[in-house]
Amino acid sequence: MVLNVVEVPYKCPIAPLEFVFMADWFFTVSGVRDKVEIEFVTPLDNVFTKPVAAKALAQVAVQKKIKVTPYFDLAQVNAKEKTIESHKGQTIGYDLLVAIPPNMGDHVLIDSEVSDPIGFVATNNATLQAEKFDRVYVIGDTTNVPTSKAGSVAHYMAYTLYSPEQLQQIGDGLVRLTGVLHKLVAPEALDLLDKAADLPASADVAGAKPVGLFRLIGALSDPKLKAGMGVALELTRGLAALREP
């Protein structure tokens, strides 16, 4: 089995290495590890992007008998011959190829010319503000900031725009909003909202006339009006809860 990181940048630098380590575990517990060769082929100089971690992880790969082939710049995949070939003429055979493609930005950014031709937005490294647009900030994979394309990077980028306390407040607010939406989509709430939406069409708003005290007293003989006032009183009573701590 050959895992080939085609080109940088790619999503989550540790993920391909995790994959081959999991493959080693799977083949081991399946009792066929001694019959499977695992090769990690990368354009980098080592198994990982950070030197200290790369040194330690490379030792783990040796212990697991995973072959590491660095500096491999893929030119083509020869599916007929089951080989991958580099621009330098190096050829590696495979029975099973797992290829990790380069990370690109979303096509909507490319098509709208917000980003460069591969989908990354020109971003100020210090402030994360888009260099070509006012009041636009960019975090995560979409930036052209020289960092890994990983979830943890996006997480810590957020601290550039907001303090941890502000992020916690935003998160708590989203949780509460989710709770409110959950209540609004309850069948009883949807039925009520559906009926309320029909009210303007059923009421003769244009023909409505001012109502004095005597006319109001006379109107109380209308069963629908009495029922409506009952609903209004219940809703008014419920509004009192807004003042409760």
Task: Summarize, please.
The chain is built from eight helices and seven strands; from the N terminus they run E-H-E-H-E-E-E-E-E-H-H-H-H-H-H. With 245 residues, the protein is of the alpha/beta class.
Description:
This protein is an alpha/beta fold. The strands form two sheets. The chain has a four-stranded parallel β-sheet. Strands 4-5-6 form a three-stranded antiparallel β-sheet, with no helix packed on it. The protein is elongated and about 100 Å long. Among the domains are: 99 residues, FAD/NAD(P)-binding domain; 31 residues. The longest helix has 21 residues. Helices cover 43% and strands 11% of the residues.
Structural topology:
Elements: E1 2-5, H1 15-29, E2 38-41, H2 51-63, E3 66-69, E4 74-78, E5 83-86, E6 91-93, E7 97-100, H3 107-111, H4 151-161, H5 164-184, H6 187-202, H7 213-219, H8 223-239
Parallel strand pairs: 1-2, 1-7, 2-3
Antiparallel strand pairs: 4-5, 5-6
